[in-house]
Amino acid sequence: MAEDLVLDTAIRDWVLIPLTVVMILIGVLRYFVSKLMRSQQNPDAKVVREGQVVIRARNLRAGANFIPAKSFRARRAYFSNEENGLLHVPKGQGQNPQAQMFSDPNMAMDMMKKNLSMIIPQTLTFAWVNFFFSGFVAAKIPFPLTQRFRSMLQNGIDLSTVDVSYVSSRSWYFLNLFGLRGLFSLILGEENAMDDTQRMMQMSGFGMDPTKVQT
């Protein structure tokens, strides 16, 4: 039978709250550091325009059932007409979007800087948490959970008799690491909290082949 534990308030004051505050501060600091490391360059107008056309075509396909059939056919011809359609690419002239993205050395360098600004703080923070806070039971979930959550919520605690609803300090670190994006969206704004890679994909229509968008 799982045991009920009485959590010391000192664990809340010296483990739970400091971990949460440090993770928030590191996330905000990482955003500003990556912003300083990012090279300032104006995006290619042609690439942005082509990406917006792909997004419009994708939205047309998604909303095809909500507009008259005649209007849909007219818009489809506007995008995919073989003579002058915006999305028509002659055979042999199409370029792989991934190759187009990574052909720019500045973009590849920005992505590498972004990855470094994420990996280094996470590595140092995990080493700090593992050294100072390993083995603490930091919190308790206010509702029952199944045994499948034990490995996720009790990382670093090898006691099968402890109820699954208790959260270890190391697991609390991982929960903050992957669950604070909503808070960063409130602090930094939704656009700033978005990952740089996702922003570039959205801007350039990455992952969409114009030859496959034609319907």
From TrEMBL:
The keyword Transmembrane applies. Keywords: Membrane, Transmembrane, Transmembrane helix. It is found in: Membrane. The keyword Lipid biosynthesis does not apply. InterPro entries: EMC3, EMC3/TMCO1. SMART domains: DUF106. It comes from Salix koriyanagi. Belongs to the EMC3 family. It is a multi-pass membrane protein. The chain crosses the membrane at residues 14-33, 119-143. GO terms for cellular component: EMC complex. One of its GO terms (biological process) is protein folding in endoplasmic reticulum. This is ER membrane protein complex subunit 3.
